[in-house]
């Protein structure tokens, strides 16, 4: 299977850099899979799991809290606002994330921001369920 | 002529000071390593962000629809200066050189008849600038309780700047911080953050991009985030610079203390010998007189 370069960077560090087969992105308008040779595109990301497949049947999940993906001929670059690899995730971190999102939801009066926060909370709850916490 | 006891006390106190400066130097060296790796780890994100923004902005023509963070408000009457300094002193010229750069900038703007507003990040810069610009300082952001600078601190400051911008409180914002080159060289830097300065042609591609949602919306969310990233990067650079400056300042202080100890020990020994000689002469001349 053809591979392409994928880079995942959060403000604090580079989380992943290398050749991969496929990446599933939690894009704002629905999840999408990026394969080698994808058309150039730029999209915002919402809260959710990003799945990296470097060899078939071997996926890595990373929880993303918003960000951007830039797909061009050089590969895929994801600028995540916050990124937590599955193995670093604990129940406390998730609960804390949910709490901050809920506080954010209560604090804003802007309708769009409220919707975004609501979606983020739902996604985080889903992530929590997916990890059997 | 100080007595021998005075000299001994003086040497002891300089030795104590030297121990303190030596310890501070070593602490700064350890902290520097951490701060430096944090600053380096944050660099890729800022670079990619600049590249993505460059890509995006190169395809956009400035019009009335363009977000004001990119296009500006169309005036440059009110300037906001965000001055990032350290919370602690004893780091050589670090705080004063950033403050001097900010002060010169503010003076120049005021001479041109512009309005200046200042946000101080870090207590030391506030202490220096307060004397001259007490009226202009609108806020002091204290990071003393923060051990390791995280993205949240950058977000918090950026949020304040963005709120002020949305209220129309300023037209142009400039960020002052110290860029970390090496332990002995930190460069005070002024960087304009609003309207955003975009390096065009950095990673421009001819390819036609698809945008999801649309171009304007992405740009509108990307610009505030870029501001946060710039501020975060400045904070990290500043943290590394501060430790670097402190390390070299304390190294100097330790060396100076060593020299002082050497000089005073010499004086001490000389006067001790002089005293012995004097006493001997007194005894001998006493014996001769008999």
TrEMBL record, chain A:
SUPFAM superfamilies found in the cross-reference section: Epsilon subunit of F1F0-ATP synthase N-terminal domain
UniProt cross-references to Pfam families, sorted A to Z: ATP-synt_DE_N
Keyword RNA-binding in record: no
InterPro entries recorded: ATP_synth_F1_dsu/esu, ATP_synth_F1_dsu/esu_N, ATPsynth_dsu/esu_N
Entry annotated with the keyword Ion transport: yes
Domain ATP synthase F1 complex delta/epsilon subunit N-terminal, chain residue ranges per copy: 4-83
Entry's localization field: Cell membrane; Endomembrane system
HAMAP family: ATP_synth_epsil_bac (MF_00530)
PANTHER family documented for this protein: ATP SYNTHASE DELTA/EPSILON CHAIN (PTHR13822), ATP SYNTHASE EPSILON CHAIN, CHLOROPLASTIC (PTHR13822:SF10)
Family, per entry: Belongs to the ATPase epsilon chain family.
Subunit structure: F-type ATPases have 2 components, CF(1) - the catalytic core - and CF(0) - the membrane proton channel. CF(1) has five subunits: alpha(3), beta(3), gamma(1), delta(1), epsilon(1). CF(0) has three main subunits: a, b and c.
Function statement: Produces ATP from ADP in the presence of a proton gradient across the membrane.
Name assigned to this protein: ATP synthase epsilon chain
Automatic annotation (TrEMBL), chain B:
Compartments reported by the entry: Cell membrane; Membrane
Chief location category: membrane
Keyword DNA damage part of the UniProt annotation: no
Its membrane topology: Peripheral membrane protein
This protein's UniProt keywords: ATP synthesis, Cell membrane, CF(1), Hydrogen ion transport, Ion transport, Membrane, Transport
Top-rank taxon: Bacteria
Pfam families, A to Z: ATP-synt
InterPro entries named in the record: ATP_synth_F1_ATPase_gsu, ATP_synth_F1_gsu, ATP_synth_F1_gsu_CS
Coiled-coil features, chain-numbered ranges: none
Record-linked PANTHER family: ATP SYNTHASE GAMMA CHAIN, ATP SYNTHASE SUBUNIT GAMMA, MITOCHONDRIAL
UniProt function note: Produces ATP from ADP in the presence of a proton gradient across the membrane. The gamma chain is believed to be important in regulating ATPase activity and the flow of protons through the CF(0) complex.
Subunit structure: F-type ATPases have 2 components, CF(1) - the catalytic core - and CF(0) - the membrane proton channel. CF(1) has five subunits: alpha(3), beta(3), gamma(1), delta(1), epsilon(1). CF(0) has three main subunits: a, b and c.
Stated family: Belongs to the ATPase gamma chain family.
The protein, known as: ATP synthase gamma chain
Organism: Microvirga puerhi
Gene name for this UniProt entry: atpG
